[in-house]
Specification:
The structure is a homodimer.
Chain A (H helix, E strand, L loop, with lengths): L2 E6 L4 E6 L9 H12 L13 E5 L13 E6 L6 E6 L3 H7 L2 E7 L8 E6 L3 E5 L7 H12 L4 E4 L2 H4 L7 E3 L8 E3 L4 H7 L2 E7 L11 H17 L2 H9 L4 H7 L21 H11 L4 E4 L10 E5 L5 E3 L4 H7 L8 H14 L3 H13 L8 H13 L2 H7 L2 H8 L6 E2 L2 E2 L9 H9 L24 H18 L6 H4 L3 H12 L5 H22 L10 H5 L13 H9 L1
Parallel strand pairs in A: 1-6, 7-12
Antiparallel strand pairs in A: 1-2, 3-4, 3-6, 4-5, 7-8, 9-10, 9-12, 10-11, 13-14, 14-15, 16-17
Chain lengths: 567, 567
């Protein structure tokens, strides 16, 4: 990966640049973060001319190590007002890596009155008119695959992103071409939309095979890694069988399952939306259903799934825990078919299911709809699809929806909706929501696997503080976080395999140091953007309102929270 | 003024406290600011339990010096997220002063399911059920005056504040009992609303006469002050005759009159909404009309007016320049009757006309309505009155309305709408909008009277920097800013008269030092609240989009702006 592609939409120019020395050891989240700090006016309007979007594979992008080709996208978030990185599996990062593209910088905004898409292959990079603008991601992807063949990878936004909705994410295609691997958080789909870019088509056909620094050693170590992944009870057992939905049983048990706009913490129908039931439904229905699906080539964990309807026809893929928590229990919807349908609608609009689930939860809480009304929730997404006034409000996410509706119970941190862990039940993750440069983000330092009392405030700041750089390591290597239960204790091996792949000599300790440095880069951007430790806190209703079953409030002290970024 | 009244609405308790030594030399804005810094969690939710509202007369409150009894209210603003003080003339500050009340602190929030009002007289202070909740300010005031007689002063909010609309202000009554002297900015009406407080009734009947430190010397110096005010061409000539509307001629000439959502800078119908035309209409219609009206007892400037309809019946009082600019030219409405009608509707709902004018301007710009459609604008206010979804959006002010409608042209600084000076035409005021702890606020340091080229960026930071503490002096003394053209050059005399009134020995230089210190208090609160110099800037469209006639953009550099609060 020896080049950076810069697309200036204001000028309509595309340039290829060598990778500066300072970016060589960076990838994924650490690279998008550094480029944004170096190039983006931190005080700029996120949905304005001065913001940029940076796509980057991780350091291991394109390698055949399991789960190593996640795609990162970074920019200034229209939800948090700070720096944001979102990442997903799928095929686009691998395709960029094969073409030697270490980063793709999208800057300026198109003066044209129509959307464009970017076409990238071995020989050319071009902006082309996007006649599929206005279409949902499923039909837009279909059209692009018909044109460019199924070797292509797609990155695209839906109507939500086109319209600048702050709940909009960016998606990319999986191994079978589904446009449903979402870089969902932070509203970065809206940033792509206001720039006038509908999609990126990457066709790696004809690219030379990637030149491994030491392919033989890599193959050896990879075998060891696969063994570690397969032998670990989580990555080799729970995830392949039940997928992320397995988490619902656990969060429900510890009163951390978002329920009815984060008012309950556990859900009476949890056993109808958890991993075991999901597994039962998929296997009993058969047809297109699949409980063990890989979102990117070569993944041995295969936590993903294909969820079929009663006739065995694919309804949505994947159906993930975060969606189940936010669009299921959080809306008091205890039926996986309903959740799958809402998931599909969000996907097609290009909206983040976490942000939209939280938003609809707030709307239900304010009486716009009854909790549990799945048809009503679908109708709200219909309003979003039709861009009615109500749809425009909801499309801006939970914070603006809550302000408009006069809610005092808006489950956000730094303006971004909380994922499916009520921070009163998993307080370490609450610390991460409050203090991560990313806002409320469960992938920025999840503490749920720590063997502690998750409602005891005392150990949580330290737990979150340790989890945040570990998440960063995964994010800059392009690794799925789910390898961490198996490989997180073997950072030296991760360093070795990185060297074997790309020649970057790095020890486990150096990986940690690099992660700390990348976090500092993000904090520095946020500091310059005007975010400060004063905003490192959770909504007051979570500090004041005990969860009814556990009696727990979020009581990690503001001083403790503030300290984390004042270090 | 020897006591502080503390009303805790959570507990339903009212306590009377002596004035701590550290607050003795403070008043109005400097006192509300210091109490808020001392008592309010800076990271709190402005519309939550932890915010407080502090009412305070200035140091000269209750004295018979002209224009010296403005009422300040402070709190954390739901628009800016920072500290806010708003002030107005009227009678409430005088009434509080007569009762010896230096500050009235409203804290907590009522657990009751009905609104209350606070009754204050010489003998008792009580919370009483507000059966006039839900009523507009005009009918609510009428009911309270019927009950308590016309010696009472009222502070109250409208339905906008009750519903927590961020565009809501707080009003108080003038000499004739009109509830139209608005402490309009910052959304502090919403803070009062969420606390469950509809009104404050202050009856000073029976209070002992205020004990002047040296009444005789005060009387002497007052004569001199009156002479200065009457001889000054602005305070003795322009203001009494034309009122603030005189400003329209000037801003139109220098391309600073907000026109069609801040897109033009001058308005083809300016001569139908300026001071001379207003004067002509009022005098030719006669009846209740009055061009020279005092908003508080003893004011010799009398810049206020009573605007009559064609039959001579009072339509609204006052009709001020800021309303004319924001609800007139900014909406392309060139008819004073239309503007007066919109003004009355806003007043009755308890909404800030600046915020609502800017909001409707954004809505028109986004195609919700045609520019110039006065009936349409009134219909939008009807939506607000009826609390429809559109009304709920508009009631949140220009920033949220603009975000929902996808606007890229939102004229706000720190979330608060700009008053009637386009900062591309008066760049010094643009510096104030960007850098004042108050957000976009023309009363926080207006540079329009400086004899410079207002489009030359070079001198503006220094001009704004000098104007900000002068505004603070007026605001902590309780003085109307309009005395400053005549008295601003006589700070020593202002210090003397202060000593003669309340015994506080203070020189002109010490007044300036006290103002700087009060500004530092505000900055410190904002720093702790997470606002930083990174937010000290104006919207990008004002940096990028030249006004068509003048070609001017807001080009004071970000570095220059940042320096002001980094000092």
């Amino acid at each position: 990966m020896d080049k950076i592609i810069r697309v200036n939409l204001s000028e309509g120019t595309i340039t290829t640049e060598p990778v500066p020395e300072k970016y060589r050891a960076l990838g994924g989240r650490s690279l998008t973060g550094k480029i944004i700090l170096d190039e983006v006016d931190p005080g700029c309007e996120p949905l304005g001319l001065r913001n940029k979007l940076v796509f980057a594979p991780g350091l291991l992008g394109g390698s055949f190590l399991s789960s190593s080709s996640r795609l990162s996208v970074g920019g200034k978030s229209p939800l948090t007002g700070g720096i944001k990185e979102a990442n997903a599996g799928g095929t686009a990062a691998g395709a960029l890596s094969k073409l030697g593209i270490k980063a793709l910088i999208i800057e300026g905004e198109s003066p044209l009155d129509y959307f464009q898409y970017l076409y990238v292959d071995q020989e050319k990079i071009e902006l082309r008119p996007a006649e599929m603008a206005g279409q949902g991601v499923y039909s837009a992807a279909k059209l692009l695959f018909e044109r460019y063949g199924d070797k292509a990878s797609l990155i695209l936004i839906g109507p939500g992103g086109e319209r600048g909705y702050r709940a909009a994410g960016i998606t990319n295609t999986d191994v079978q071409g589904r446009p449903s691997r979402f870089l969902g958080r932070g509203g970065l789909g809206a940033v792509m939309g206001v720039k006038g870019l509908k999609a990126i088509v990457i066709d790696p056909t004809g690219a030379e095979a990637i030149d491994y620094h030491d392919r033989k050693a890599f193959q050896e170590l990879n075998k060891e890694m696969v063994k570690l992944l397969k032998e670990n009870p989580v990555t080799g057992g729970v995830y392949p069988k039940y997928g992320t939905a397995a988490m619902a049983t656990r969060t429900n048990a510890i009163h951390a399952l978002p329920t009815r706009n984060f008012s309950a913490g556990s859900f009476e129908c949890a056993n109808r939306i958890d991993g075991e039931y999901l597994h039962y439904i998929i296997t009993s229905r058969g047809g297109a259903g699949d409980t063990t699906h890989a979102c990117m080539p070569g993944c041995v964990i295969k936590c993903s799934n294909i969820y079929p309807d009663a006739e065995g026809k694919e309804l949505v893929a994947p159906l993930e825990y975060e969606t189940i928590g936010l669009m299921g229990s959080n809306l008091s919807i205890g039926n996986l078919d309903d959740i799958a349908r809402l998931n599909y609608l969000c996907n097609d609009l290009g909206l983040d299911t976490i942000e939209m689930g939280a938003t609809i939860g707030v709307a239900m809480d304010q009486g716009l709809l009854t909790f549990g009304d799945a048809d009503g929730a679908a109708a709200l997404l219909g309003e979003v699809a039709e861009d009615t006034l109500l749809g425009k409000v909801l499309g801006q996410g939970a914070l603006i929806t809550g302000k408009v509706l006069g809610s005092r119970r808006i489950p956000v941190a730094k303006g971004q909706s909380m994922p499916a862990y009520d921070p009163r039940g998993v307080k370490g993750l609450g610390v991460t929501y409050a203090t991560s440069p990313m806002g409320a983000d469960h992938t920025a330092g999840n503490t749920i696997r720590a063997e502690v009392d998750h409602t005891d405030p005392a150990p949580q700041p330290a737990l979150s503080r340790r989890a945040q750089p570990l998440a960063m390591i995964a994010d800059f290597m392009g690794l799925c976080l789910f390898v961490m239960p198996a490989l997180g204790a073997h950072l030296d091996k991760l360093g070795q395999i990185c060297e074997q792949y790309c020649g970057l000599k790095i020890s486990g300790d150096e990986l940690l140091a690099a992660a700390e440095k990348a976090l500092q880069v993000e904090r520095e951007f946020n500091r310059r953007a005007g975010l400060s430790p004063a905003q490192d806190r959770l909504p007051e209703f979570m500090m004041d309102e005990p969860l009814p079953v556990s009696g727990s409030v979020f009581d990690v002290s503001l001083d403790e929270l503030r300290k984390i970024n004042e270090e």
